[in-house]
Amino acid sequence: MTERILRIGTRDSKLALWQAKKVQDLLTIKGFYSDLIPVKSEGDLDLVTPLYAMGVQGVFTKTLDAYLLSNKIDIAVHSMKDVPTQLAQGIQQAAVLERANYKDLFVYKENRIYKSYFTSNIDERKTLQGIVATGSVRRKAQLLHRFPGLTIENLRGNVQTRMKKLHDNHWDAAIFAAAGLERIGERPENAVEIDWMLPAPAQGAIMVVCKTEDKDCFEKITLLNHQETAACVKIERDFLKTLMGGCSTPISALAEIKDTHMVFKGNILSLDGKEMLEIEKRVSLSNMDDLGVSAANELLQNGAMKIVEDIRKSL
């Protein structure tokens, strides 16, 4: 019997292709053959409209979902932070790869700008002015919460497009995911990790999905699963789902295993950054299963529902 060649669906950006090639290499190590099938997503075709105005849920994944369900590909590879918490019917998570750097990067044009934006003086932060570009409502809200005098410009496109836009415009800086720049070897020298900014749920992780009915494919792909990463991002996505959030909601979450405990930090902000509710939990690994849900419910009881409702009304 001829060995099955797995068709790997991926977006056609440099970063997405890197991620798909990573999956292909891991499959090769396991002794499985595969081909890459690049696909252009709706999110890649429209580089102008802000994400929150695009119907958002699955904007980078639904094209690959359709390819998967119509049997044009066998698996799809995604940046996990782009994947809706509710997968399309007929599609299942098969593996989560080991997480890379989960932090956001501040890419600046001049040293004085970098020093100003990372000042520890609270009064300076409140009066700081400047222009920072990002297409993420989460990053925008956290920036405005810390620096209410900033002007935020919308920034869309793949890594190379966004970096060129930063260079060509009169902006002071732009925010990027560290993992994306580092994976393709394009992290610039004029970049610093934003230690105070919580990441998007599952940022830095790669998810591989297949059809629910494809048991052979699932059995092969699940061999790539990194259990520690999968446990952490599940908690983060549970937090996001319970808060009823998506790409249009400024929700951040980070779960990390430290010794025998799971440490979780999460927050939700208003779109203008003026309101923020945050939570931090530390539980034993034996009690971590419902950590994301319980943390979100605690925030909902403490006023997060009003923020969620206000965001929905504004969209």
Automatic annotation (TrEMBL):
Protein known as: Hydroxymethylbilane synthase
Record EC number: 2.5.1.61
A biological-process GO annotation: heme biosynthetic process
The species this protein was found in: Arachidicoccus soli
Gene3D superfamilies listed in its UniProt record: Periplasmic binding protein-like II, Porphobilinogen deaminase, C-terminal domain
NCBIfam families linked to this entry: hemC
UniProt function note: Tetrapolymerization of the monopyrrole PBG into the hydroxymethylbilane pre-uroporphyrinogen in several discrete steps.
Essential cofactor(s): dipyrromethane
Catalytic reaction(s) noted: 4 porphobilinogen + H2O = hydroxymethylbilane + 4 NH4(+)
